[in-house]
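The aim of this short unit is practical: by the end, you should be able to scan a pair of folded records and say something sensible about each. We start with the first protein, listed as its amino acid sequence and then its structure tokens.
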Amino acid sequence: MEERRYRSASGGPIALRALQHSASCRELAVRCPRLQLRSLSAVTSAVWLAAYGLFVLSQNSMVLSAAIFITLIGLIIYLHFVKIDQESLLVIGSLGIQVTSSYASGKESTTFIEMGRVKDVVINEAIHMQKVIYYLCILLQDPGDPQGVSEIVPLFQSSKPRLDCLIEVYRSCQEILEQRKMAPQSN
């Protein structure tokens, strides 16, 4: 197991963990920093101070109850649907590619793409605001046109690793895809 430190497109720290289970099976996981207690405390304090200010002005205790309720519901929604701690890519040359997102609440979202549908894995670029952002994506083969692409599946959308990290993941994926392309020719 090898873990390297990188930066995200926004400059935050991320870590890439690479596991090679066999010659044709690799797992690549990008870990984002966990939720910081300091930022959580700051947001909660700001909401509760604003609610206390409204309570002092209105003398209505429902304002405080609503602030507590909104803060708790907001935190649950954030942890369960927004904050992703880890995004992983499991590439199995003979089977397919599994993409998994692990949320802060423990929930996992998994997508599997059969290897027969995979045309290629590429690094693409996009212009966002005044920056060029690179992202890794899987090109899915068009069933009607073997040379065409039917869909593009972007990877690591939450962690948004920089180009140096994406190149390492790209090379690892390409090694397995090349093995798959060479296997039918050797038979």
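Turning to the second protein, read its sequence before its tokens, just as you did above.
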Amino acid sequence: AMKINQDTVLRGKKVTLVPYTAAHVPRYHEWMQSEELQRLTASEPLSLEQEHEMQRSWRDDADKCTFIVLDSGRWPGQAEENSMVGDVNLFLTNSEDPTVGEIEIMIAEPSCRGRGFGKEATLLMMAYGVRKLGITKFEAKIGQENEASICMFKKLHFKEVAMSSIFQEVTLRLDVSDQERQWLLEQTNHMEEKSYAELKQPAGVLDT
């Protein structure tokens, strides 16, 4: 099962990626009430209970790897739920080719968009996928109207390979050649990998 990242923190300059835990669900659930986010992520609103079930499946399924994106400027220091800006996911759903990862990024906090948070979170996740999960090909499926996201993936060397008018989405792809791998590791050479258990504030410390 995809427990591989349950104690992993990936710390960048702008964002820090932490495992998605039950403590993050209420804030996540709040985000997903937004019609705009539902449209951009092609998802249905869930009840809080369903969102908790979803979080457990994210944690336990072998074909998903997910991190919550925190603002590095706020965490550690502030409570995680106050530092959350979005999430980033890898789906390993291609049974014929386990080296393909479909990547998905959501910066849910409007004040954090357009500040490079999504780009860094995506790069950190890609580097993790390449180093830890054996990914050699990335795909991203993005709604046609989401120009900011399409543009960002193109800056990260993804190429448009398909367009579905039925789903109104564009598929972009990146094959990680040696050269691309080198570039990716250079882009993320500031990333620090840490233990989540060690960085988390003990309960109660923030309340005193």
